[in-house]
Amino acid sequence: MRQLSDVRDRLRALGAGPSHERRVLRLWSNALPQDSGSRAIEDFLPKSLREGLPAVEAELAGLARLVSRHPGEDGSERLLVGLGDGQTCESVLLPRGGVCVSSQIGCAVGCTFCMTGREGLVRQIGSAEIVAQVALARSLRPVRKVVFMGMGEPAHNLANVMDAIDLLGTAGNLGHKQLVFSTVGDERVFERLPRGPVKPALALSLHTTRADLREELLPRAPRIAPQDLVEAGDAYVRATGYPMQVQWTLLEDVNDTAEELDGIVRLLRGKHAVLNMIPYNSVPDLPYRRPSWEKAAAIARTLHQRGVLTKLRHSAGQDVEGGCGQLRARGRTVPIV
Ligand code: SF4
Questions:
Q1: Which residue, of 43, 62, 81, 252, has the fewest CB within 10 Å?
Q2: Ligand 1 atom having least distance to the Cα of 249
Q3: What is the pTM of this model?
Q4: What keyword terms does UniProt attach to this protein (predicted)?
Q5: How many helices (H) and strands (E) does the chain have?
Q6: Whose CA is closest to 128, among 95, 91, 84, 97?
Q7: Which atom of ligand 1 lies nearest, measured to the CA of 107?
């Protein structure tokens, strides 16, 4: 029962009508007990549903189990999450009510500065398993924002991610803007996002304005010129009204050069965008270095002065390996399928 469609089929087979189905999904995705609310409402549930619901609830609870918690000093917390088949993924509780969820176990993009993609793709995470990560997070603390920046490239699991987003943006009590779809850039994303009932905010992982360097850093990302990516993202966010978040992992002497800063100004000035610069988080065995905070701050200041809204961020949870590029399927218990 990894997919939301499986959950809906189970409920319908038990006699649930659309309103029963909505209620069960709403309570589950908000981590509220199924018997919350008026007892009288329970009495209106068909008998078959009342009797079958505990088994469905048990299965929903088993979709994303808490294996271990790793609190960071900044109020974030990395969660190792066990899925129904014994695979594991990671979610990160962020300071100020956010949660970062995973959409795949492993990742096929293979960014050279990221731990997640080092073993390639293991499997897709189902739409119900994605919502279950949010429900699990909500069982631990209130969640007001969900970012799809954990393990995996959401564009490579587009149908499942969008099913989860549609549920979270309707029954899940989250505004569209509070759901952040993150991608390295893929034409399918720019076609799909504007058509859905829930239109999430867009985060574009750009990392460089040079096409040749991007091929090197993100070897299996679609070959779309950085300028075209930014234009496609800009067209989407102008329709939604909330800004595009451009993600930039800052790698010393790689993408912090004067040439890159000129490229950023050329691509982003005048766009409805925020550049999020995140100094690289160390990953064992990788050759990259993190620039000093002073150097990163000077870069952010320069870009700001040249007309690009730039935020320099510490990646949440990096002291517990919960930062950008540090997530992986720790303690996986079954072989790769
Ligand atoms: Fe995949 Fe994102 Fe890691 Fe790149 S940075 S390998 S897209 S998880």
A1: 43
A2: 5
A3: 0.94
A4: 4Fe-4S, Cytoplasm, Disulfide bond, Iron, Iron-sulfur, Metal-binding, Methyltransferase, S-adenosyl-L-methionine, Transferase
A5: 11, 12
A6: 84
A7: 1
